[in-house]
């Protein structure tokens, strides 16, 4: 029996297998729907502010090291095709969520900074993370441990400028706290497990096998059954998790992972949702 692969799905299998990236966050930022035709106007959001972008998507600020005691490290992202620095375990957790969330197409760490003028003083804000979501929606995210930082009036003023700038550009802006990332615990454990298999290799034949098994099952299949179709259960399960990172399939992470966890194609089912995902 032959299996029908719609054009979009076929190209998605190709994308998931690493043959090419059809959408890129840097391009979405530089060529977004609200980007002014005049390059100078693009830099000037208003007379009092602008966005300074790194053309290749590299972080605009280097990680701080030395005497300041902060957690630093790097996170190799398969979804974004590059390695990101992080300044805290909260940022690291947010990267893991972004890697797994199937609504996130691409993301970058600190790819640009906002510059504003308030009462004659220059304010600078560097976003912790910027994500490209489904529908070509750009989302600017600030990651904090908790709400105590919002007691600082100057910091809140800066965030208000950022929010206003994002609204003008047609972007979303939100603040994510640690509890949004690590709770509920079961979901966070699942996110950690899935992203830990993000670099597992698979090819187009695995992709088409997954599509066929899920389609023949009526749109959803248990993880254990899909794993067996992809090879032995252990290897197949690892491949399935890598496929979720690549946005080919969507595994239900709302409950502890098991052989019975429902798996759907990204195009056919609701994407994984968590507090660390898109709002």
Explained architecture:
The chain is α+β, with helices and mostly antiparallel strands and 279 residues long. It folds into two domains: 7-16 and 184-265, Arc Repressor Mutant, subunit A, CATH 1.10.10; 25-182, 3-Layer(aba) Sandwich (Trna Endonuclease, Chain: A, domain 1). It is built from ten helices and 13 strands. The strands form four sheets. It has a four-stranded antiparallel sheet. The chain has a four-stranded mixed sheet with strand order 5-8-9-10. Strand 9, helix 5 and strand 10 (172-177) form a beta-alpha-beta unit. Helix 4 (89-100) crosses helix 7 and helix 9 packs across helix 10. The radius of gyration is 20 Å and the shape is elongated.
Fold blueprint:
Blueprint lengths: L6 H10 L8 H6 L8 H5 E3 L2 E5 L19 E5 L4 E5 L2 H12 L3 E6 L2 E7 L2 E6 L2 E5 L3 E8 L8 H17 L2 E6 H5 L2 H11 L8 H13 L4 E2 H7 L3 H13 L3 E3 L10 E4 L14
Parallel strand pairs: 9-10
Antiparallel strand pairs: 1-2, 2-6, 3-4, 5-8, 6-7, 8-9, 11-13, 12-13
């Amino acid at each position: 029996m032959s299996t029908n692969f719609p054009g979009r799905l076929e190209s998605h299998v190709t994308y998931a297998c690493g043959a090419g990236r059809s959408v890129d966050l840097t391009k979405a930022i530089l060529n977004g729907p609200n980007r002014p035709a005049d390059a100078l106007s693009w830099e000037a959001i208003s007379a009092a502010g602008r966005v300074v972008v790194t053309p290749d998507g590299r972080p605009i600020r280097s990680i701080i090291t030395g005497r300041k005691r902060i957690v630093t490290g790097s996170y190799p992202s398969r979804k974004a095709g590059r390695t990101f620095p992080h300044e805290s375990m909260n940022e690291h957790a947010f990267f893991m969520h972004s890697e797994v969330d199937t609504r996130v197409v691409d993301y970058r760490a600190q790819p640009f900074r906002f510059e504003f003028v308030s009462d004659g003083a220059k304010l600078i804000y560097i976003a912790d993370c910027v994500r490209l979501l489904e529908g070509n929606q750009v989302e600017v995210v600030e990651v904090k441990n908790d709400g105590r930082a919002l007691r600082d009036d100057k910091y809140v003023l800066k965030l208000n400028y950022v929010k206003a700038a994002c609204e003008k550009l047609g972007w979303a802006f939100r603040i994510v706290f640690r509890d949004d990332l690590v709770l509920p615990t079961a979901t966070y454990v699942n996110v950690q497990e899935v992203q830990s298999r993000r670099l597992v290799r698979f090819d187009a034949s695995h992709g088409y096998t997954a599509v066929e098994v899920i389609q023949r099952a009526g749109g959803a299949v248990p993880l254990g059954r899909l794993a067996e179709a992809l090879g032995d259960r252990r290897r197949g399960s690892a491949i399935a998790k890598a496929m979720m990172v690549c946005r080919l399939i969507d595994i239900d992470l709302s409950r502890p992972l098991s052989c019975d966890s429902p798996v759907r194609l990204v195009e056919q089912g609701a994407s994984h949702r968590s507090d660390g995902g898109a709002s």
